[in-house]
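Supplementary Methods. Inverse-folding protocol.

Structures were first reduced to a discrete structure-token string of length 694. This string, shown here, constituted the complete conditioning input.
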């Protein structure tokens, strides 16, 4: 058909592709000779086709020996005239035709060079970044960190102005560090209003936004008109802005990073395209500034803490020094006082080792305190003496205060009577740390008491006989057998009889008390029914109660006590008699007894029960400060009233001696105008009824 072109034949098509291919194509025979090559191949080898045909391919290779090791794909180096070397990538297709191979070559010299250049550039960037980072991190002072950052960034980017802009909590901000060329106006210290840096901008930068503006006047920049005017004032043509974030939570923020500020580069002479490298460098340096800021802030806080702690430690050391000085002064004063006292003072720890002794130990016993310090009691006093005090030491180390008396030969060679008290030392956890030992010489007091007792005994014995005669004579006169007396004489006789009887009673009480205290009386203890003792005491006091218009009441107890019947009956009648004498008419005196629920150990550490006898009146009461002294000799609540009632001031003292002689205790409780209650305890004897009646 006319006008229609015939399609090319395969031969013409492949010939065209071979001729116009941009890649070098060569056909090589089995002996590695080039039999055909396209124009691109001639260009690659740098010679004409005529010089290539029938030549060995190895003649044009830098390393001919490598040709024997070629694979289907790989790289080889081709040498051109004038010693030019090309790096090529090859593909080898063997036996395309019988005895012929197809070799396709592509020049990659430029791409390799570009890769090397990029690698060098990357290495330079890493070195540059490391250098700047090192300069930033070498300083721990915040001001120096920021100034180093802007100076180095300006040097690297060759920017007209680089500044660090700090963002404040109220939305405003201010450049706090700047590096600027001399021909441009500094912006340092100018406060930016919130309109220039609105809330939505802050939120975007907090999320890590980086803004690279080549021309601030382009519509695509998207700046508000007020911001454009602001930048025009400072001649800003292009800008690169990256956020400075601190990775910590502030008190006002609960999540995410904290936007501390911005790192900003300005180009003022003309617009500028910011490269990817420059953007990455700015971003990485901003991250380093954020880390340095956090470290500087932590350091500042640490320095503040160290300063405060140092001041506190100095204060504590000063206070401790003063306290130690005061303690030493106090210890010196206590030691001076302890050494000046005429008593033995010591502290013994819970291992029974002496920890403190005053100077009296050397004066009295010939034991220097420094030599017996930290020595065991047995080592200091010897086995014989230690056995005498061991039981008392054990009591003190159980937490009980103990007092005892003993005779000891002192340095003067004389026997002295000593009163020794052990006071336990308890800590807050009630653990026994040791005890204080106080020893006083009571030799003179003992001698005076013996003289006094002997005097009282002699006087009392000397008074008893004439008093008995006088009392008997007065009784006879009162009967009228020797004649009658006038009424006034009878009244005087009655007074004399009453006073004589009171004096006889006083002498008898003095003698009883003296005998009990001297130990001359041995109490005849036996099993006694508490109920029988109480009934007999009530019967004895019944007449006195009727005379005083007092009602007696008692609540018996069926327990058995181990006691001297006569002395316990004397104690009960004495207490009931006192209650009657000091009670108002038409009132009641109650006598009762009860078994204690609490058991106490005796001197053998055995648990025993006690019976408590109780005498309660409705009298005028006893002041609290007199509840202890009334059990001493010749002590009365109101001496004038006692004389009216016929009291001697010895009854309660005798009662205490009797009760304590039975291993019991006696005490009183009282409320003014409401009456008093007297208590005393006796050990309970637990046995069968058959044993009791036997």
């Amino acid at each position: 058909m006319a006008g229609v072109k015939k399609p090319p034949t395969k031969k013409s098509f492949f010939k065209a592709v071979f001729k116009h291919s941009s890649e070098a194509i060569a056909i090589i025979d089995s002996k590695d000779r080039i039999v055909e090559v396209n124009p691109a191949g001639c260009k690659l080898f740098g010679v004409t086709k005529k010089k290539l045909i029938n030549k060995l391919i190895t003649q044009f290779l830098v390393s001919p020996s490598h040709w024997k090791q070629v694979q289907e794909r790989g790289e080889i180096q081709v040498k051109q005239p004038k010693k030019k070397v090309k790096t090529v990538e090859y593909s080898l297709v063997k036996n395309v035709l019988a005895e012929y191979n197809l070799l396709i070559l592509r020049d990659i010299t430029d791409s390799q060079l570009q890769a090397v250049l990029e690698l060098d550039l990357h290495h330079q960037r890493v070195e540059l970044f490391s250098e700047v980072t090192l300069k930033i991190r070498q300083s721990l002072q915040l001001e120096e960190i920021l100034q180093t950052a802007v100076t180095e960034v300006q040097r690297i980017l060759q920017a007209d102005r680089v500044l660090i802009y700090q963002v404040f909590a109220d939305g405003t901000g201010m450049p706090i560090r700047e590096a600027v060329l001399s021909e441009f106006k500094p912006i340092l210290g100018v406060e930016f209003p919130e309109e220039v840096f609105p809330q939505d901008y802050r939120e975007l930068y907090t999320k890590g936004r980086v803004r690279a503006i080549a021309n601030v006047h382009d519509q695509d920049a998207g700046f508000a008109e007020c911001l454009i005017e602001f930048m025009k004032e400072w001649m800003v043509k292009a800008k690169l802005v990256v956020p400075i974030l601190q990775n910590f939570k502030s008190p006002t923020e609960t999540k995410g990073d904290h936007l501390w500020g911005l790192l900003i580069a300005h180009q003022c002479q003309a617009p500028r395209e910011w490269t990817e490298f420059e953007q990455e460098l700015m971003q990485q340096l901003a991250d380093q500034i954020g880390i340095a800021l956090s470290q500087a802030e932590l350091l500042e806080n640490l320095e503040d803490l160290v300063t405060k702690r140092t001041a506190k430690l100095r204060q504590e050391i000063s206070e401790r020094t003063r306290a130690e000085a005061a303690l030493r002064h106090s210890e010196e004063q206590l030691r001076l006082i302890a050494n000046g006292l005429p008593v033995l003072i010591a502290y013994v720890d819970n291992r029974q080792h002496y920890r403190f002794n005053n100077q009296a130990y050397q004066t009295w016993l010939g034991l220097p305190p420094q030599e017996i310090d930290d020595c065991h009691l047995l080592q200091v006093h010897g086995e014989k003496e230690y056995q005498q005090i061991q039981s008392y030491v054990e009591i003190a180390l159980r937490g009980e205060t103990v007092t005892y008396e003993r005779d000891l030969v002192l340095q003067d060679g004389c026997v002295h009577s000593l009163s020794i008290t052990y006071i336990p030392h308890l800590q807050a956890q009630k653990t026994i740390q040791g005890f204080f030992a106080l020893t006083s010489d009571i030799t003179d007091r003992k001698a005076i008491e013996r003289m006094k007792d002997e005097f009282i005994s002699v006087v009392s014995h000397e008074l008893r006989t004439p008093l008995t005669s006088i009392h008997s004579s007065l009784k006879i006169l009162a009967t009228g057998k020797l004649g009658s007396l006038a009424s006034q004489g009878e009244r005087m006789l009655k007074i004399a009889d009453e006073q004589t009887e009171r004096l006889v009673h006083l002498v008898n009480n003095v003698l009883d008390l003296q005998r009990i205290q001297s130990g001359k009386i041995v109490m005849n203890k036996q099993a006694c029914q508490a109920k029988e003792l109480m009934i007999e005491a009530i019967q004895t006091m019944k007449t006195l109660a009727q005379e005083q218009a007092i009602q007696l009441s008692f609540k018996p107890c069926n327990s058995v006590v181990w006691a001297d019947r006569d002395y316990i009956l004397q104690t009960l009648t004495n207490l009931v008699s006192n209650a009657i004498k000091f009670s108002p008419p038409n009132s009641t005196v109650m006598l009762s007894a009860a078994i204690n629920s609490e058991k106490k150990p005796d001197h053998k550490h055995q648990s025993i029960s006690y019976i408590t006898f109780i005498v309660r009146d409705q009298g005028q009461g006893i002041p609290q400060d007199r509840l202890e002294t009334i059990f001493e000799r010749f002590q009365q609540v109101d001496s004038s009233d006692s004389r009216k009632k016929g009291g001697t001031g010895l009854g309660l003292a005798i009662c205490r001696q009797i009760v304590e002689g039975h291993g019991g205790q006696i005490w009183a409780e009282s409320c003014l105008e409401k009456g008093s209650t007297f208590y005393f305890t006796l050990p309970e004897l637990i046995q069968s009824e058959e044993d009791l009646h036997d």
